[in-house]
């Protein structure tokens, strides 16, 4: 633990939190990983990576996950 920098810890924490929010949303909807993968047009192995808490998400992927699950994972942009 001494070798982990505060930045690395914060990044890992955020990745794990996002994975947990996705898992919670799937459970709330009663969707399996396979069903979610199909709705996202992805392979189930990709969803497994997302749920591992170690995947480095792009903003586009997170936005698509939000839209599909109806949850907020990112800060909402202000409207003009």
Automatic annotation (TrEMBL):
SUPFAM superfamilies linked to this entry: lambda repressor-like DNA-binding domains (SSF47413)
Recorded hits in Pfam families, A to Z, give: HTH_3
Q: List, alphabetically, the InterPro entries matched.
A: Cro/C1-type_HTH, Lambda_DNA-bd_dom_sf
Query: Which stretches make up the HTH cro/C1-type domain?
Result: 22-74
Query: What is the name of this protein?
Result: HTH cro/C1-type domain-containing protein
């Amino acid at each position: 633990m001494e070798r982990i920098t505060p930045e690395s810890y914060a990044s890992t924490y955020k990745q794990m939190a996002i994975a947990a929010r996705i898992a919670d949303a799937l459970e709330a909807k009663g969707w399996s990983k396979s069903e979610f993968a199909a709705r996202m047009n992805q392979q189930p192995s990709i969803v497994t990576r997302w749920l591992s808490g170690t995947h480095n998400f792009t903003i586009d992927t997170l936005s698509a996950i939000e839209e599909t699950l109806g949850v907020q994972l990112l800060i909402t942009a202000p409207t003009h």
